[in-house]
Design brief:
Elements: H1 3-7, H2 15-18, E1 28-31, H3 37-48, E2 52-57, H4 60-73, E3 78-82, H5 88-101, E4 107-110, H6 128-151, E5 154-159, H7 183-205, E6 210-216, H8 230-239, H9 249-252, H10 254-261, E7 272-274, E8 277-278, H11 298-312
Parallel strand pairs: 1-2, 1-4, 2-3, 4-5, 5-6, 6-7
Antiparallel strand pairs: 7-8
The structure holds NADP nicotinamide-adenine-dinucleotide phosphate.
């Protein structure tokens, strides 16, 4: 595909189009939550270009089924590892196994996520959405950073969401101990944390060749909506201004595959991407496109890192 075609990437661009002309042989990619949805498609696409891929799944049987589909479609080496992001013990055990097996990691896609679930806690007592979507990936990435540094140039992709527009990180009430739990605010907070995490990762690792970006995939019919009721679909439609264009899974996963591989992003990080391009900051409350300034504020990103270290009881000296 020519440079001109890449310039024309947009909402309908697919993973295969993003990867046209790109060779990933020799690269190791790790994708969390790859038992289905966008994670499985991301793994398939990267594998189709020769990357060795490690899929993580909390349900190994589901992960194996996804891996088998990829093995049948590509010649790539595909491994599956158990990882429960709502458990620090599971994350630490996984990281230990991973580091024992692999010297270097080139692409880390922090994709797993849970959305708008009823109020619940992780095994370590964190609010479930913040705990899974942010603290789980925070801990995992910190533990895997040595392998990413050995793999440099390497990339980290933080799969966020336009849902980040529903809430900044609520530092004074992260776990809804003062205000009643609101599932969309909790999701929004966790997805804002995903963007802030990429900003701070970039500040800490960018100069050493490990670049981190956050992305919004679009709206795609996946199992992510498993907790949604009819009223929630209405809520999303209303936020989208009535018009909600669904993407295919191949187009939905394209932005994270773009962030993981696009040569245009060489040496660049700390950005928020949507529809396969870097998005602008936009604080217009009516705006659906773009990233809110509270999600890319470098001071808030530093503060989130410090709070996260304290919560998980682990300092990540990167
Ligand atoms: N689909 C959309 O419209 C959309 C829009 C914006 C952002 N996103 C983001 O895209 C990412 C992927 O979502 P998706 O649409 O592909 O949803 P999905 O089909 O539900 O996939 C989510 C993946 O995360 C895994 N997961 C959930 N909780 C986990 C935990 N505690 N530990 C380990 N793995 C866990 C799931 O495992 P199980 O299969 O075992 O549940 C699954 O593999 C999420 O971060 C989501 O926030 C999606």
């Amino acid at each position: 595909m020519s440079q001109t075609a890449r310039d024309g990437f947009g909402p309908d661009t697919t993973t295969d189009e993003v990867l046209e002309g790109i060779d990933l042989s020799g690269q190791l990619a790790l994708i969390t939550g790859a038992s289905g949805g966008l994670g499985a498609e991301t793994a398939r696409a990267l594998a189709s270009k020769g990357a060795r891929v490690v899929l993580t799944a909390r349900d190994l049987q589901k992960g194996e089924a996804a891996a088998q589909t990829i093995r049948e479609a590509t010649a790539a080496e595909v491994q599956v590892e158990e990882l429960e992001l709502a458990s620090l013990a599971s994350i630490r055990a996984f990281a230990e196994r991973f580091l024992a097996k692999h010297e270097a990691l080139h692409i880390l896609v922090n994709n797993a996520g849970v959305m708008a679930c009823p109020e619940a806690k992780t095994q370590d007592g964190f609010e479930l959405q913040f705990g899974t979507n942010h603290l789980g990936h925070f801990t995992l990435t910190g533990l895997l950073a040595p392998a990413l540094l050995r793999g440099a140039p390497a990339r980290i992709v933080s799969v966020s969401s336009r849902g980040h527009q529903q809430s900044p990180v609520r530092f004074d009430d992260l776990a809804f101990e003062k205000e009643p739990y609101e599932k969309w605010v909790a999701y929004g907070q966790s997805k804002t944390a995903n963007v802030l995490f990429a900003v701070e990762l970039e500040r800490r690792l960018g100069e050493r060749g490990v670049h981190a970006n956050a992305i919004h995939p679009g709206v795609i019919a996946t199992d992510l909506s498993r907790h949604m009721q009819q009223e929630d679909f209405e809520h999303i439609r209303k936020r989208a201004g009535g018009a909600m264009k669904l993407k295919s899974v191949e187009s939905g996963a394209a932005t994270q595959v773009y962030a993981a591989t696009a040569p245009e992003l060489d040496g660049r990080g700390g950005r928020y991407l949507e529809d396969c391009h870097v998005a602008e900051v936009n604080d217009d409350p009516e705006a659906r496109e773009g990233v809110r300034s509270y999600a890319v504020d470098p001071e808030l990103a530093k503060r989130l890192w410090a709070v996260s270290e304290e919560l998980v009881g682990q300092s990540l000296p990167l």
